[in-house]
Amino acid sequence: MVMDHRIRHGWTPDGGAAASVPPSAVNWLRERIGTLTPSAAVPPGSAIAVPPSALGEAASGDLAGAVGAAHVLEDPRERLGRAGGLSYLDLLRRRSGKATVPDAVVLPADSGEVQRVLEVCVAHDIAVVPFGGGTSVVGGVAALRGPKHAVIALDLARLDRLVSIDPVSRIAVLGAGVRGPDAERLLGEHGFTLGHVPQSFERATIGGFAATRSAGQASSGYGRFEDMVTGVRLATPRGQWRLGVAPASAAGPDLRALAVGSEGTLGVLTEVALRVRPVPESRRYEGFFVDGWDRGTELVRTLAQSGLLADVTRLSDPGETEVSLALNGGLKTRLLRRYLSARHLSEPCMLILGWEGLSRHRKETLAVLRKSGAVRIGRSLGESWRHGRFAGPRQRDTLMDLGVCVETLETAARWSGLTRLREAIRAALTGALGTPVIMCHISHAYETGASLYFTVLAARDGADPVRQWQRAKHAASAAIAGADRPLGTISHHHAVGVDHAPYLEGEIGRVGVEVLRAAKAAVDPTGIMNPGKLLG
Ligand SMILES: Cc1cc2nc3c(=O)[nH]c(=O)nc-3n(C[C@H](O)[C@H](O)[C@H](O)COP(=O)(O)OP(=O)(O)OC[C@H]3O[C@@H](n4cnc5c(N)ncnc54)[C@H](O)[C@@H]3O)c2cc1C
């Protein structure tokens, strides 16, 4: 029963049940996207067919020799619990009993055991899928075996320690399997924080963050995850590889950057050395409204180019703002709407700014906001966003039960092309889905451009829901890839996995793909590491 939350509704093992969606919100949604056909609840584990393990006795015995028999799991429930990640398609496949299941789950305890597992897998020619929190939304942990006869999910949950801390240099080494909240707890005992808070924070792991070049909500202050990585320890089929000895280096190309973002295709990150920061003395979140997307992006660009971004800077477009207000409902929201209309905001865009003690220019930032005509609502809105920021994933299962197709996608582009890209993606999604609700926000801004994050809600096609989303996703990806050259990146932080692999060459070129293939051939000559991901 231990993995139950992965198979069914739970977002976390301890009480992360699906959240309800208020009836007023359901009615609003029906008006916007049309008739919904509720689907059957998730089938019990026993109703999902799990084929017998193809591991074989010899391999199973050798794996048990590497990690102990108690840590090689061939039980169907355990295997089903690591059958893919958390994209809408993953959830649909699990609901319909069509998930691809690994032949075994292997749980090593440390770097040495990970290395021994890889040696066994090379010897028996078994594919290996590194498995952190399993929150990939791009097929990164799909149990694909490629040409191999069997595949294991290499679950890193037992690499859950703070390996070492150097408070003078402010560097902590964490095991790859440490989850977001545990990282903060372990570092907090020493007065430090990582400050990496993606929406998947509660489940995702240090190894997963590094392997996918994740970006957290406070990336404007703390940086993207890759900015925090000062070194890595990687177990590869060719042996151990350690990278990162000094704060900066000119010793050839940055191979650490090759390991970070390699999505388990080169080896297994077992330990990650990370820059840490003192826990902030206070945090302050505030909410504002700006009139229209163009003014909003102009404002965020000005802040980014003047060094005045708050540590969390998040601008919602009119569509996302409208949904936030509609889902909240209630007297307070009605009063807020009236206030915004009295202030002549015809297309309100919500702006959340959070100061975590890194940006020291709050007063200057507020002065720019005042000058741009932004309406300041204050701490209640900012704090309410902060408290509710992990609620989204919990509502997904409920929305799916109601018959909603619900998924997200993301990209990034230069400021000069950002609005064009947003429009191209909106048009592509509308063309594929009819009358969807499309929400978009900027949550990561840079001097030269910003990310765009879309959430899509549509009435689910009961006949072929998988195909419905594949069509929409393909249309959006084709819009990003552009007719002659990319309008943006195929992924700003979700990574490539299986879903974006067809678009990688368009972004990094044929030579770029060959360089990656050559690197893989050097460390993984028999191709056991994460088949089908990144390079397709
Ligand atoms: C609701 C939701 C919200 C999300 N929000 C964000 C967000 O705000 N920001 C963001 O960046 N992402 C977000 N994601 C995407 C996802 O959480 C990230 O990609 C995260 O970094 C994955 O971490 P994980 O531990 O779950 O990795 P997994 O999903 O287990 O693995 C991801 C990939 O990394 C590989 N991998 C995992 N661990 C290792 C390792 N130790 N060594 C080598 N390879 C490894 C896997 O094989 C796979 O290819 C979200 C996902 C969900 C479902």
From TrEMBL:
The protein's matches in InterPro entries, at most eight in alphabetical order, are given as: Alkyl-DHAP_Synthase (IPR025650), FAD-bd_oxidored_4_C (IPR004113), FAD-bd_PCMH (IPR016166), FAD-bd_PCMH-like_sf (IPR036318), FAD-bd_PCMH_sub1 (IPR016167), FAD-bd_PCMH_sub2 (IPR016169), FAD-linked_Oxase-like_C (IPR016164), Oxid_FAD_bind_N (IPR006094)
Per UniProt, the keywords (alphabetical) are: FAD, Flavoprotein, Oxidoreductase
**FAD-binding PCMH-type domain segment(s):** 98-279
Record's protein name? FAD-binding oxidoreductase
Stated family: Belongs to the FAD-binding oxidoreductase/transferase type 4 family.
Gene3D superfamilies on file = 3.30.300.330, 3.30.465.10, 3.30.70.3450, Uridine Diphospho-n-acetylenolpyruvylglucosamine Reductase, domain 2 (3.30.43.10), Vanillyl-alcohol Oxidase, Chain A, domain 4 (1.10.45.10)
**PROSITE patterns given in the database record:** FAD_PCMH
Q: Specify the domain of life of the species encoding this protein.
A: Bacteria
A Pfam family of this chain: FAD-oxidase_C
